[in-house]
Amino acid sequence: MQGPWESGTVEGAPDRLALELTCSLGAPRDRIFRAMTEPSALSKWWGPSGFTTPEIELDLHVGGGYRFGMQPSDGELFHLAGEFIDIDPPSVLAYTFRWEEPDPDDQETLVRLSLHAIEGATHMALSQGEFATQARLTLHTNGWMDSFVKLRQLIEADA
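-> structure tokens emitted (159 positions)
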């Protein structure tokens, strides 16, 4: 199945590993922004294929935090958390991202989601980085690509 992303690149030299993805979604920015910031919507699309997000805590203001509990279909619940550093509805959402039970190759990254209105639809650009290793970059790339598929399905189902 063709994914909703339009492009995905891994940028930089071995000392700079970053993720850039873009995606077009057939809904206005405010609807996409709500899907990114409301727990009831987030629980339907966040995470890679085969994962659920049964725990979502949000304190949605600059300086506030979030904590998500993710669970693979055949595994234990684990958590990620961070702080919001930029919130400009319905255009920008930026936050730190860290695993609470980190892999030795994990480090805190910065996620930035930018939403641009294009003729009744939304063009979303995601950037995340820097990663410590290529393996962690690949893990996040695959997770975001799966999540964007689920986000598009959610948006289309609600249309």
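The helical segments are 29-37, 39-45, 134-157.
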